[in-house]
Amino acid sequence: MTKRAADTESAVPQGATQDQAASSAPPVAAETDEERQLRYMIDNLDGDVSYVGQQFNFYMRNFLEHTKVDTRTAYMACSGIESTLTIDAVGDEKVKFPAKKAASKTKENYYKREDFGKKKVDPADWETLKRSFAHDAAETDFSERDSTYRNLMRLADTLNLNDVERESLKILYVMGNNQAFFMVVDSIFGDDLKQTAVGFARMMNRPDDAAKVFNALHFSSRLSTYGIIVAKDDEEEYGGETGRRVFGVPEIDMDLIGCLDRPDMKDDEIVALLLGKQRSSPLNLSDFEHLGDHLDHLKKLVQSSVAAGKKGINVLLHGPAGSGKTELAAVLAKELGLKLYAVGEDDEDAAAIGSAKKGDTTGKKRAFELVAGLAARVARFHPAV
Asked: For the whole model, what pTM was predicted?
């Protein structure tokens, strides 16, 4: 129904101006976090997510182009694709994959894993796959449509990740959002991280960078140390009583994805995700006058280090619990106009990922690695003490 102009005008009391009417109108409540999150979830459900499939096709097209047809990898790719996808058209053109399966009219898979060595990939099938994936392939920067991915890339910016680390994260993100992609990768590479690194490098269209991809995905990599990716380490499934540890294809930590699954995250929230909440103190330097010249020296040391753009300094504050070590650091940061994040603290403000608990040397190493990564991005944020 179309509303008439007279209906609209009647809403303004006689003798009142439009500005007066507007000021007397009840205020519109700001959108709550719960309402904003619900809106975001609905957009994800009803929105266009074809970009994920296009990116999957882009990766597969690159992978097939860089893989020779007469290799084990090609055979395993055909086996995984046949088990996962139905390839029967390229655009409006009808195709048959595998061609010999269609000709025999059997329901069994043609490219069975156990038949590797007995069969070879039909070159015609290989060309059909390349044409099929190339038809709908698109290199997509979907950060504008996917705020979780956008926040993940902002996290990558914060940590100054290199191109290979960022692209590896993107592939893992697409795998986490496209079941077919995950199943094909698992079918081709299984739990062999070295083979996976070779495959990922081909998907990135940088086949010569396989060693760099392996270093980015390894369980001792920066991504793993920061707590962004989690390597498969299932002794019960793979090791049993022998305790053999198998580190396969990692995945992005689901706790991290849960934290990033929010629209309109602020830069400070990204940092807090890594280091916990920013610390503050109601005290002032005058409350620590009893430290005398030590306090003045400490202030000048931090101040000159910040001015020189140093990545960090080491200062040992010693004393029993409750003597004010953390408060002194917070007061000093406030005095110098800096931001303070306390790592290795066991409290409710601990970082959401890569947290460092007291007595946990792995967590503390992770925390200091994070600070080192953040130091390269101080231009985006106030320096952290």
From this structure: 0.71
